[in-house]
## 1
Amino acid sequence: MAFSFGINKKTTDDFRKEGWLRETLAAYFLSVPHPDKQNPDEKKRFSHSQRLMAELEIISLLQFDLIRRPLRYGDINTLLSVIIEACSRRLEEKSITIESSLPERCVFMAAEPRLVSFALISLLRAYADNNKNDKISVHVMLHKHSLSISVDGQPPVLNTGTRGLVRAAAYLHKGGVAVSNGTVAFSLQTRIRGAVGLYAAPSADELLSNPLSPVNILLS
C-alpha cells in the first residue's frame, strides 16, 4: 500500500482513499497475530502498517488546522511524563537514551492531549533518527503562565509532518516555537479557558501494549 498527498489540498478522491485505507488497516490490525508471534515477513508488514496509520493520524490532525480543536482539562505534566517514559523504553531497543526533567507537581490545564502527544513523539522520533546510539534530552519547564517542552541533541532535519504538529500544538495552545543550536522547543499557555470535559493520561505500559498507540505507530 502507498499513501501520500498534500495535507491541506485534499480532494474528494483523497478522502475516499483515506477512508478505504482506514477500513483496510482496521481489518488488518484486528486479525494480525501479536507481534511476539509474528514471523519476519509479518513483522515487516506490521511495521509498515503502523507507519501508514501514523501518516493517516498526522494528516487527520493537520488537515483542518484552521478549525479550532476542542480542549479538555487534565494534568499535562503526567501525560508528558508517561509519553517520555514510554518513548524511552521503546528507544532503549535502539541504544538511544532519553534524559529528562519535569516539574514535580501536577499541572492541571486545558489542552488537546492527542495533538500534544503526537507533536512530542514525532519530535522525539526525528531526534532519535539523528542520534543513533546516543542520548536525547527532554526538558519540561513550568513558567508563570506557560509550560515549555524542549528537545535537545544532534539537530535533525524535521519533515513536514513533524514541523506541522509542533507548530499546530503551539498555535492551538497560544504558545510559540523556538529552534536554536540543536534544540527545538514549543510552549503551551496554562491558563486557557473554555475547555469542555476531562482527559486522563494512560500508563506507559498501556501505551506500549497497544499497537495503535501514538508511541508505537510513530516509533515503529
## 2
Amino acid sequence: MPAKKMYLVFVISIVALSAIGVANAQDSIDEILEKARAKAQTIEKLKKVLNEEPDQNVRLAAFNLLIENGDPVMHEVALEAGLASADKLLQSAAFKTAIMDLDRLHLILKEYPSSSAKMQKLAKAYIEKNGNQHVLVISKKDPKTGTFEGRYLQGEVIGTHLTFTDYSAKGTLFLKDDDSLQGEITLGDIEFSASSKIR
C-alpha cells in the first residue's frame, strides 16, 4: 500500500476513534446529568417530607432512614432539615445525630455577662493567660442513649441540650440558630459563657 494511502488510513482511524471517544464521553456526561437531576428531585421530595409531612411518625422515620442509609449527601440533607425543624422531636433527633458525628467540640470562651465583676475579672485573666478555647475530645459515643465519653470526659445529649464534665470543667449548652451551641461552663471555679459550631 502506498505511503500516502497508509497515512490516510491511519488518520481516518484516529479520527474515528476520537469520535467514538467523544460520543462515549458525551454519553457519560448525559448519564451523570440524568443521575444528578434524579437525585436532586429525590432530595427535594425528602425535604418536603421532613418539612411538610403532617404525621410526626413519618417525619421521624424518614429522618432515620436518611441518616442510616450511608449516603453523606442524604445525611446532610436530613441534618439540615432536622435542626431547623419546628418539630421538637425531630430537632432533638437531629441535634443528637450532629453531636454524635463529632470527634471534637471546640468551645469558645467569653466572660459570662451576668456573673459578678470579680468573676468577670477572673475569666478575663484566665483567657488572657490560657486562650479562649476549651476542647472536648470525644472518643466513645452511644447514639441510642445520646451519651459520649473521652479521657476524663462524660457527656450526654438530652433534647436540644448537652451537658458534660471533664478533668477541669463542667457545663450545659443548648442548640442555637440551627448550627451552634451556646451556654455556660465552669473551669475550676471560674464561670464562662461558651459557644461552638456543630456543623
